[in-house]
Amino acid sequence: MASQQYVCQVDATGKATEMPLHRIWGSKERNPHMRAFWLNTLSFFLAFLGWYALAPLGVYVTASLKVCENQLYPPAEFPKRKAYLKYKNVDKQLFYCRYGKNDIKDPTECKDVPATIAQAPLCGANAASASSGVNVSDLGANTSAVACATAQMKNRYNPSVLPKCVCTAGTECKGVIDNAGIAGVASTIFARSIFGSLLERFGPVNVQSGLLLYGSIVVASASLISAPWNFALIRFLIGVVGASFVTCQFWSYLMFSKNIVGTANAVAAGWGNLGGGFAQFFMVKALVEPFINTHGMTDDLAWRVSMLIPAGSYLICAVAIQTLCWDTPNGRRFHISELGKTNSFSVKDYVEVLKDPRALIMIYQYGACFGAELALNNVLPTHFQTYFQMKSGDAALAASSMGLMNFFSRALGGIASDWLNKRFGFRGRIWAQFICLFFEALFLFLLGRCSDERPWWHALLALLAFSLFCEACCGTSYSIVPFVNAKQVAIVSALIAMGGNIGAVLAQWCLYKTMSDVLLPFQVHAAFVLVAALLTPLMYWPEYGGMFRRASVPALEKAAPSEKATEVAPSEKEATV
Question: How far apart are CA 229 and CA 187, in angstroms?
Answer without folding.
Answer: 15
